[in-house]
Amino acid sequence: MTQEINRKDRILDVAEELFSIHGYDGVSIRQIASAAEVDVALANYYFGKKLDLFQAVFDRRAQLLSDTRQEVLKREQGKQQSLDQVIEAFLLPLKMAQQTGDPGWRNYLALLSYVMTSPIWNKELMGKVFDKRVSEFVAALKEIFPNAQDEKIHWCYHYMSGALALTLAQTGRIDRLSKNRCRSTDFDTAYELMVPFMAAGLREVCG
Questions:
Q1: For the chain, first and last CA: distance in Å?
Q2: For residue range 126-153, what is the model confidence (pLDDT) as tens digits?
Q3: Which of 2, 50, 53, 59 is least crowded, fewest Cβ atoms below 10 Å from its Cβ?
């Protein structure tokens, strides 16, 4: 049983890395099986078609990430959260990737960025877990900015999602543009700077 679990986890880990780099269409089941050092038949036995494996990879960390976000957002339930606290909960993926020490989280977050910015996969995968939390963040922002129009709060959430998605993608572009003074893998700095950046934008638009 332990060997079976290890094989399944190895397939998921490899698929997570390859999907995060090449996207869904750029990877075959055969390539995943080869990199995981298992037979293609075994990968098909555990996960079925490539679409099923892609779904399994995306779902594996989704619920944990979503639930942890909710816990951070509600950590002082009954008290109004500060704007910085709400943004910190939103940016939790950056913290989790740093604190767990699991390199797979970086691959998963790049995959999450891919899904977030895809018109097809966003609709197919985000609604199951992540979209359910959006109303909680919007409600928290509405408490902080009670006079703000709902449309403005939703646009601001949209902008926050875009900044997070680009950061999670770790494309390396900021490395090139800054001549390596900044690193796309530096989630600590990204988190530290993005909190006041987003807070200032929200106060300007909704305050």
A1: 56
A2: 988 888 889 989 999 999 999 999 999 9
A3: 2
